[in-house]
């Protein structure tokens, strides 16, 4: 089992009043398509999250679906898209 260590964000992000515009959670194999998914994420309302769901690797997909559901339950704006939209798999 892997143990991950979460570190504090950089000092620039810890200042009072700093907010991120939006967040994108994507599989690593979509890095070559960054311009495409980043344009979609930038088009979302401020504070929204884009989650791209992989078609394969059911464990990773289920995890991201759970993350999306929990974020929505907390009132966050979440948009999910299939990875196939970016010409993968």
Report what the structure shows.
The chain has 89 residues and is an alpha/beta fold. The protein has one domain (19-86). 33% of the residues lie in helices and 15% in strands. The chain has three helices and three strands; from the N terminus they run H-E-H-E-H-E. The chain has helices at residues 11-14, 34-42, 58-73; strands at 23-25, 49-53, 78-82. A three-stranded parallel β-sheet has the order 1-2-3, with helices on both faces. Strand 2 (49-53), helix 3 and strand 3 (78-82) form a beta-alpha-beta unit. The longest helix has 16 residues, at 58-73. It is globular and about 40 Å long. The mean pLDDT is 86.
For this entry, give a set of tags:
single chain, 89 residues, alpha/beta, 3-stranded parallel β-sheet, 3 strands, 33% helix, 15% strand
Short description:
The chain is α/β, with parallel strands linked by helices. It has helices at 11-14, 34-42, 58-73, and strands at 23-25, 49-53, 78-82. Strand 2 (49-53), helix 3 and strand 3 form a beta-alpha-beta unit.
Overall pLDDT: 86
Q: Which stretches of 5+ consecutive residues score pLDDT under 50? A: none
Largest sheet: 3 strands, parallel
Structural class: alpha/beta
Strand tally: 3
**Multimer state:** single chain
């Amino acid at each position: 089992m892997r143990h991950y260590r979460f570190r504090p964000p950089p000092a620039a992000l810890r200042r009072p009043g700093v907010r991120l515009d939006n967040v994108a959670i994507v599989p690593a194999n979509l890095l070559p398509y960054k311009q495409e998914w980043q344009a979609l994420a930038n088009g979302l309302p401020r504070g929204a999250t884009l989650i791209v769901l992989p078609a394969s690797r059911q464990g990773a997909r289920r995890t991201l679906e759970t993350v999306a559901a929990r974020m929505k339950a907390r009132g966050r704006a979440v948009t999910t898209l299939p990875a196939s939209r970016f010409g993968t798999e």
